[in-house]
Amino acid sequence: MRHSNHTTRGDRRSHATAGGVAPVGLLLVMAVLVACGPTAAASAPPTPQPTPVITPDPHLQEPVTADQVWTAIASGHMRLTPNNATISEGTIVKRINADLEGWTLRITAYTNAAAMQKAKPWKTGAAPGVGEAAYNFAAMNVIVEFGPTSRASAPANDPEHQATAATLIAILDPLLWPIEQHSVTAIPARTVPPPATPAPTTAPAKSKAP
Q1: What angle do CA 164, 168, 169 make, to 5 degrees?
Q2: Which residues, at least 6 apart from 79, have a Cβ–Cβ distance to it below 8 Å?
Q3: Do residues 46 and 40 touch, judged by C-beta distance below 8 A?
Q4: Distance between CA 132 and CA 106 in Å, rounded?
Q5: Consecutive 10-residue averages of pLDDT for the chain (210 residues)
Q6: Fewest CB atoms within 10 A around its CB: which of 34, 38, 142, 145?
Q7: Is-contact 143 182, C-beta < 8 A?
Q8: Nearest in space to 69 (alpha carbons), one of 103, 110, 119, 102
Q9: Residue 23 half-sphere exposure, CB side, CA atoms within 13 Å?
């Protein structure tokens, strides 16, 4: 008995059609999932610029205390030993006596700059004489003396203490400039003082000749 092959052919077409539709349906499902997924990430915000660092002005304001100067010198990592201090003596607010690298150091703070200038026994730029320290620095209301003052003759320069004096003024210069010096050898300062303003002339104007 011969069987018809129509059913077999129909089944084959049905399986082929199903096999062909399945990938298309999978693509549609994937497309829907992609469409329903999270939106594209927003662009990153711009990187903020760093805030500029403002360097504080180290310059001290008058009246400067002897303790402020002492603390600054002590930060220089030199051999510094305090001896004694005198407080409130006339126009002197405080005087600190110490030893710096084996030499005498004296820090004197006056009530104001006018009192310091009046008490200052030396002239700026002149060489130290008998009874004066080898290196003397004055600024605002403070005088710093480096070197013994008990000499029977004028102090002489020596390279070792000159190097210490250079380190000393390098510490004091940013804090007290401009600094007046009275030293056996002038130590260059790092900060240039502002130029002096010329005094106005008061001479009467000459009349032109007729």
Answers
A1: 120
A2: 99, 100, 101, 102
A3: no
A4: 12
A5: 50 47 53 52 67 70 96 94 92 97 97 96 90 95 96 90 96 93 90 57 54
A6: 38
A7: no
A8: 110
A9: 4
For the stretch 122-160, pLDDT in tens is 988 889 999 999 999 999 999 999 999 988 888 998 999
Q: For residue 106, list its beta bridge partners.
A: 97, 145
- Name residue, tokens 């130590």: 187
Cα–Cα–Cα angle for 129, 140, 175, rounded to 5 degrees? 100
Give the Å distances, CA to CA, from 134 to 37, 75, 149, 189: 84, 23, 8, 17
pLDDT at 15: 47
Q: Can you say how many angstroms the Cα of residue 48 is from the centroid of all Cα atoms in its chain?
A: 25
Question: Could you tell me the residue ranges of all domains in the chain?
Answer: 66-181
Strands 135-139 and 142-146: antiparallel
Q: What phi-psi label fits residue 94: left (phi over 0), alpha (psi between -120 and 50 degrees) or beta?
A: beta
DSSP 1: -
Please report, as a single letter, which amino acid is at residue 15.
H
